[in-house]
Write a structure and sequence with these properties.
The protein is globular. Helix content is 30%, strand content 25%. Strands 3-2-1-4-9-6-10 form a 7-stranded mixed β-sheet, sandwiched between helices. Strands 5-11-7-8-12 form a 5-stranded mixed β-sheet. It is an alpha/beta fold and 268 residues long. The mean pLDDT is 92.
């Protein structure tokens, strides 16, 4: 059977799921109020509009879909702003869902964009405050094709990228440094699975993925920029090496792989 692979990413934009948060509010109402706080939303939008979206617009392979999952009570003005940001990506859509447990919510969201001609779905994850390199989609497509041929196309496998950058954002300025993680980081992480299995990249915690799926990881390509700031839900826990590059090498790797300069990142 021919391998017809669809690539789709999902961003959870302040979606008040009933699970999936590292830091839990006292009750569901408190969680929604925290997520929809105007100051917090403005901070998320600033990074989404200036970091996440530009990195996806700059992809060398534009044949992918992005789904932004929000809650039914997402503020109207914020939804308009989200729609305007997504307008830069032709194959993107907003999916509004009622409060659900995390994984069924992601399954429902991916179902809305699934191409009935596809034999496989390569789903990837990205947060609303992170960025991926220009060649992420092209690399997911080629790696999925090769690994599917190797594995026979019947079982899911993960594709991860362990090298990238952490961007620490603080009141006294922003700093960028390179990292090489021991285990897959969530940014750009993909799962290729036969469509009939309805499995996607959110099936397992990204740090635990190699316990459940065959996992191919790239420790050579600078593939992500993860922001570190006071609004992080899970915190930034580096599991591997950092500062393997000089300042000049860091800037050169940034410009070569991302649509940003050091000045752009310092100004976020």
């Amino acid at each position: 059977m021919a391998f017809r692979n669809q690539i789709a990413g999902l961003v959870r934009f302040s979606y008040p799921a009933r699970s999936g948060f590292a830091r839990k509010a006292e009750d569901f109402g408190a969680l929604a109020a925290e997520l929809y706080d105007p100051v917090r939303l403005d901070a998320r939008f600033r990074l989404f509009e200036r970091l996440t979206i530009p990195s996806l617009v700059a992809q060398t392979d534009g044949d992918f879909t992005l789904v932004a999952v929000i809650g039914l009570e997402f503020p109207t003005g914020a939804r308009d702003r989200l729609q305007a940001a997504l307008a830069r990506l032709p194959n993107s859509r907003i999916v509004a869902l009622p409060p659900m447990y995390h994984y069924p919510a992601t399954q429902a969201a991916f179902d809305t964009v699934l191409d009935d001609r596809a034999t496989h779905l390569t789903s990837f994850r990205i947060d609303d405050d992170d960025a991926v390199d220009r060649n992420l989609i092209a690399r997911l497509r080629e790696t999925s094709r090769r690994l599917s041929g190797l594995k026979g196309g019947k079982t899911p496998f993960a594709i991860g990228f362990n090298r990238g950058f952490f961007l620490e954002i603080g009141p006294t300025g922003n700093s960028l440094y390179d990292v090489v993680e021991k285990m897959p980081l969530g940014v750009g992480l993909g799962l290729c699975a036969p469509v009939e299995r309805r499995e996607n990249i959110f099936a397992r915690n990204h740090r635990l993925l190699p316990q459940f799926f065959d996992c191919w990881t790239d420790a050579e390509t600078p593939a992500f920029i993860r922001t570190v700031h006071e609004g992080n839900d899970s915190g930034a826990h580096l599991t591997g090496r950092r500062d393997t590059l000089s300042a000049a090498e860091t800037e050169a790797a940034l410009v070569a792989n991302f649509p940003f300069s050091m000045e752009d990142l310092r100004a976020l």
